[in-house]
């Protein structure tokens, strides 16, 4: 698990949410990950049109976010390596690499920037991940 870089940074509510998200995804803590979200949260992973979001509108609300977890996140093992983190206002931008291993053993790495925005209670209002789907598909080995 690679949150040691984030743990070394100044405490910030959005950065704390990012760390909780990473831990929950890597440990397959579905309920813990879903509990982080505001009921009307918005997940865009990746931002824009992709096979994971054909309309490019993102996944809004707990029901849609739960479906994304079940249909995408839960389908493999995900590992994060965060190299940079910048917090300001109610947001945090993390720069890093995600490595995914599918159930059939295929592995892919993807460079990305993840933006977390939280409310005053620390609930995630939005998670916007910027990465290129085609680069992920080309990176499978």
Feature tags:
141 residues; alpha+beta; Nuclear Transport Factor 2, Chain: A; six-stranded mixed beta sheet; 6 strands; globular
Explain what this protein looks like in three dimensions.
By secondary structure, the chain is of the alpha+beta class. It has a single domain (about 5-140), classed as Nuclear Transport Factor 2, Chain: A (Roll). It contains five helices and six strands; from the N terminus they run H-H-H-E-E-H-E-E-E-E-H. It has helices spanning about 5, 15-25, 30-35, 60-70, 135-140; strands spanning about 35-45, 60, 75-90, 90-100, 105-120, 125-130. The protein has a six-stranded mixed sheet. The longest helix is centred in the first third of the chain and has 14 residues, at about 15-25. The two termini are about 20 Å apart. The relative contact order is 0.20. The model has no long low-confidence stretch (mean pLDDT about 95).
